[in-house]
Write a structure and sequence with these properties.
The structure is a single chain. The protein has 429 residues and is an alpha/beta fold. The chain folds into two domains: 162 residues, Alpha-Beta Complex (Aspartate Aminotransferase, domain 1); 255 residues, Type I PLP-dependent aspartate aminotransferase-like (Major domain) (Aspartate Aminotransferase, domain 2), CATH 3.40.640.10. It contains 15 helices and 17 strands. The strands form five sheets. It has a seven-stranded mixed sheet, with helices on both faces. Strand 1 and strand 2 form a beta hairpin. Helix 2 packs antiparallel against helix 10, helix 3 packs across helix 10 and helix 11 runs parallel beside helix 15. The protein starts with a helix and ends with a helix. The structure holds pyridoxal-5'-phosphate.
Length: 429
């Protein structure tokens, strides 16, 4: 069981008060706060081990190399990489997805197909759009009325030309948890590879890539208690071995001549230049922290919070309040995305803005909602959440989004709904 109030004590930022009141942080899908244990691991590295890795034949460098590589092993263990897979350290999930799209796609030919979904974050969309220049065709799985992936449609989209299926594990807007094992099986039966965007799942639930059966998976350290600037690309070694390096430079080579070079082994082949050593060490400390809590417990805690949010929504009947995402908690992560009243579509908003007219429909613009909640120190995200195609599908330019994590308690959810109620009342006047 998770005790949010005890956990909160590990996070120095929560001892800060703004205008004399505590911070209610509900923007965890964007980034999470950092526990003391993570910050201390980074400080300890700087105070006692700072040096460049892999190349130094002296004690500090050997120790730093050891810390870096042990961090990799720890992260690999956390996601169940097994002996056939590895983790390449990258900056974030975005870089991981770009790496796969750019380098795996060298195998693709004009007319080959990549299947994505309507709920993808731009990070798992735009890198694949680049491939259209070489004639690759993008296809999209849409949503059911229950905000889940339309699996029947996926079946019909798969063809002998499908080479990649790349889907998010959990939607950062709807909170939908996708049936990734089934998707992977369908992709493989069709001889396509399965790329998983784990940015919103690895921090929040048990994720085991070997059980899921994905070929690649992207995730970000800063969304799982770790520092910014470090993330991972899990990949099957046999694929990575045959892929071209993403960037050239130091570390990623074995031997270099004037005209050509040979590549280092995987994963170093994909880690050109001095890596984010302290980032990897901080991420490893974050993994220890989460492992200690137990990922099953993390998931049940968030399930309880989102369940409570949906309950309050139904009980309070705040005029105009509507939320987006599955009501079935088995397939719902801890993300509560909502609007108050009708919000214009993005196209309409742009059109009116170009005419100098600000319209809000009869609703309260999500930016105004976020600003209003901020008065009570409630931090939520508002905007398109880097998922513009999904916003178009919802028929709105933007939404507000509260996203929960281990240090949020039921009281935080209550404060969120108090804030929403106050906001609605204030605007109704
Ligand atoms: C589902 C999903 N994928 C990818 C990303 C990109 O993560 P990052 O900005 O850390 O690269 C995000 C970030 O919000 C996300 O929610």
């Amino acid at each position: 069981m998770i005790n949010a109030l005890t956990i909160k004590k590990d996070f120095p930022i929560f001892s800060r008060k703004i205008d004399g009141r505590p911070i209610i942080y509900l923007d965890n899908a964007a980034t999470t706060q950092k526990p003391r244990q993570v910050v201390e691991a980074i400080v300890n590295y700087y105070y006692n081990f700072n040096s460049n890795i892999h190349r130094g034949i002296y004690r500090l460098s050997e120790e730093a190399t050891d810390l870096y590589e042990k961090s990799r092993e720890n992260v690999e263990g956390f996601i169940g990489a097994g002996k056939d897979g590895t983790v390449v350290f990258v900056r974030n999930a975005t870089e991981a997805l770009n790496l796969v799209a750019a380098e795996y796609s060298r195998n693709l030919e004009p007319g080959d197909e990549v299947i994505l979904s309507t709920m993808e974050h731009h990070s798992n969309l735009v890198p694949w759009q680049f491939l259209q220049e070489k004639g690759v065709v993008l296809k999209f799985v849409d949503l059911t009325p229950d905000w889940e992936l339309n699996m029947d449609q996926l079946e019909t989209l798969l063809t002998p030309r499908t080479k990649v299926v790349s889907i998010t594990h959990v939607s950062n807007v709807l909170g939908t948890i996708n049936p990734v094992k089934e998707i992977g099986k369908m992709a493989h039966e069709n001889s396509a590879i399965f790329v998983l965007d784990g940015a919103q799942s690895v921090p929040h639930m048990p994720v085991d890539v070997s059980t899921i059966g994905c070929d690649f998976m992207a995730f970000s350290g800063h969304k799982m208690l770790g520092p910014s600037g470090i993330g991972g690309l899990y990949g099957r070694k046999d694929y990575l071995d045959h892929m071209h390096p993403y960037m050239g430079g130091g570390e990623m080579i074995k031997q270099v001549w004037k005209e050509h070079a040979t590549w280092n082994d995987v994963p170093q082949k994909f880690e050109a230049g001095t890596p984010n050593i302290e980032g990897a060490i901080g991420l490893s400390a974050a993994v220890d922290y989460l492992r200690n809590l137990g990922m099953e417990n993390v998931r049940s805690h968030e399930r309880e919070l989102i369940g409570y949010a949906l309950e309050l929504e139904e009980d309070l009947k705040i005029p105009g309040l509507r939320s987006y995402g599955p009501r079935n908690l088995d397939v719902r992560g801890g993300v509560y995305t909502f609007n108050i009243g009708d919000i214009p579509t993005f196209d309409l908003e742009m059109e009116m803005m170009s005419r100098g007219i600000r319209i809000t429909g009869n609703g309260i613009h999500p930016h105004d909602v976020a600003q209003s909640l901020d008065r009570d120190n409630i931090a939520v995200r508002s905007g398109h959440h880097c998922a513009m195609p999904l916003m178009n599908e919802l028929g709105v330019a933007a939404t507000s989004r509260a996203s929960f994590y281990i240090y949020n308690a039921r009281e935080d959810v209550e404060k969120l709904f108090d804030g929403i109620r106050m906001t609605e009342r204030a605007y109704a006047k």
